[in-house]
Amino acid sequence: MSSSGFQGGFGSSGGFSDIFEDIFSDFFGGAARSHERPQRGSDLRYELEVSFEEAAFGVEKPVELEREETCSNCKGEGARPGTSRRPCAVCHGAGQVLASSGFFSISRTCHKCHGRGSFVDHPCGSCAGTGRTLVERKIQVKVPAGADNGLRLRISGEGEAGLRGGPRGDFYVDVRVRPHELFLREGDNVLCRVPISFVQAALGAEIEVPTLAGASTLKVPPGTQNGRTFKLKGKGLASFRGHGIGDEEVHILVETPTHLTDEQKDLLKQFAESSGDKVNPISQSFVEKARQLFSGKKE
Ligand SMILES: [Zn+2]
Ligand SMILES: [Zn+2]
Q1: Do the beta carbons of residue 108 and residue 64 sit within 8 Å?
Q2: Average pLDDT for residues 195-203, to the nearest whole number?
Q3: What is the number of alpha carbons within 13 Å of residue 120 lying toward its C-beta?
Q4: Which ligand is nearest to the CA of 128?
Q5: Rounded to the nearest 5 degrees, what angle is found at the Cα of 287, between the Cα atoms of 282 and 290?
Q6: How far is the centre of ligand 2, averaged over its atoms, from the C-alpha of 211 (Å)?
Q7: Which residues, other chains included, contact 145 with Cβ-Cβ below 8 Å and sequence gap of 6+?
Q8: pLDDT at 36
Q9: Ligand 1: distance of its center to the CA of 161 in Å?
Q10: Which of 110, 122, 180, 231 is the most buried (most CB within 10 A)?
């Protein structure tokens, strides 16, 4: 009963509750009222896909989009050209009315025109009185060199037109970089896995390595192991934030031959017999460590 007493007082106290209603209607009507005032245009977002190379070197791409523009026929007024907006008779164009209740005087949104202050009797034929029309636009988007996947570009003022003289929104471009078949990006460095034959790995070779700037030669020394990394200085990406240029890391992948002929198999067997364990230093040390491990466990 204690709570119902409070509710009764709130509802039945005449003028007092009226003021509250005024305040609340004004408060909650705030959103509706803002629709009638100059309003900033919406931001637009676009996902732009570029190739690995385009992101590396930078690219300029045209982007086509549909956006709301100020109606050129009525200049955004909403009234048919040659006619004008009729001022609201209740608020005389102010959009606000002063409501008095006892000692209080509160400015409220005009209920007749919803704050706009005027009416359109003859709506513009192009925009149906809204003041904006949907227009196709082409925008040149500049993707900077070194742009990474997920980079967001902001193009100020290229969003939708504002309403009733409000400012334009912005245009955001989210850059998506397509993965490359040969290169992987790590910061400003480019990683590339380059396969070589076990013969090249054993004897050493001069191999051709792809880089963003074209083919480059790399000297692989004799006895190169699988997974060895070589650095090609300055063959990476230009730093998007201006920290110089990255490197390319070449990861060597020693390939095991497949589909051998009988003759080739015989040659390899001969090779294995003639060489023994001495030519495989990693295997040798591995076997020794494993042997020590097992003999240690038995003790
Ligand atoms: Zn119009
Ligand atoms: Zn009004």
Answers
A1: no
A2: 96
A3: 18
A4: 1
A5: 125
A6: 69
A7: 56, 57, 58, 237, 238, 240
A8: 62
A9: 13
A10: 110
Q: Which of 49, 57, 124 is nearest to 85 (CA)?
A: 124
Q: Ligand nearest 72 Cα, by number?
A: 1
pLDDT band for 264, please (50, 70, 90 cuts): very high
Q: Would you call 38 helix, strand, or coil by DSSP? A: coil
Looking at all shown ligands, the one closest to residue 123's CA atom is 1
How remote is the CA of residue 120 from the centroid of ligand 1, in Å? 11
Cα–Cα distance between 121 and 12 in angstroms, integer? Answer: 42
Q: Which ligand is nearest to the CA of 36?
A: 2
Q: d(Cα 108, Cα 123) in Å, to the nearest integer?
A: 27
**pLDDT one-digit tens code per residue, 85-138:** 899 999 988 888 888 777 778 888 888 888 888 889 999 999 999 899 999 999
Written as one letter, the residue type at 65 is: L
Q: Could you give the CA distance from residue 78 to residue 74 in angstroms, rounded to a whole number?
A: 6
d(CA 122, CA 284): 94
